[in-house]
Amino acid sequence: MREYYIEDIRSDALNGGTLGFAAGAVKFTEDDESQWLSAVEMDGVPNVYLSDECIFDELMENPDDETLERSNRYYITEFNDIDVTDYEEAYRCMEQDPDNPAVPLIKLLIALLRSDWDDAGKLADAASGRYADEVDIPMTDIEEEMSDEYDDEAEDDSYDDRDDDL
């Protein structure tokens, strides 16, 4: 099983995250190779990047065509078989493969984007210098909503099962 060692974390938001955009970046080491997994959330959609150098400052700039063109060369749609183009799809992939070692790393990145910024700072401090699977990552609002939906579906299924017995 691969483990991701967290070397550094950066996160920030412009205009409070919801009205503008939020960005986060996690520098991790895997098999003695360091890389940055970065993301920008715009209008509730994550854009995820994998690069050898930190592109966080570029991502935090008001994105113009030149900045987007430079950063798009690092744009990814999946990381270790987890779709990262949409939060719900990422959580579905992680639920289907909970033993995937990338799960805590991706959850950490999402939590940086979705947490309030005081909590994101505390999370960054707690995660730096540890392996991703050792970090207590709080459930995000999207993960909670999806969990509630699954609970509602399971409850509906149990009612349907009882009706069949009648």
Brief write-up:
The chain is of the alpha+beta class. 43% of the residues lie in helices and 26% in strands. Helix 3 (87-96) packs antiparallel against helix 4 (103-114) and helix 4 (103-114) runs antiparallel to helix 5 (117-127).
How would you explain this protein's 3D organization?
With 166 residues, the chain is α+β, with helices and mostly antiparallel strands. Helices cover 43% and strands 26% of the residues. The chain contains six helices and seven strands, in the order ββββααβββαααα. The strands form two sheets. The chain has a five-stranded antiparallel beta sheet. Strands 6-7 form a two-stranded antiparallel sheet. α3 packs antiparallel against α4. The longest helix is centred in the last third of the chain and has 25 residues.
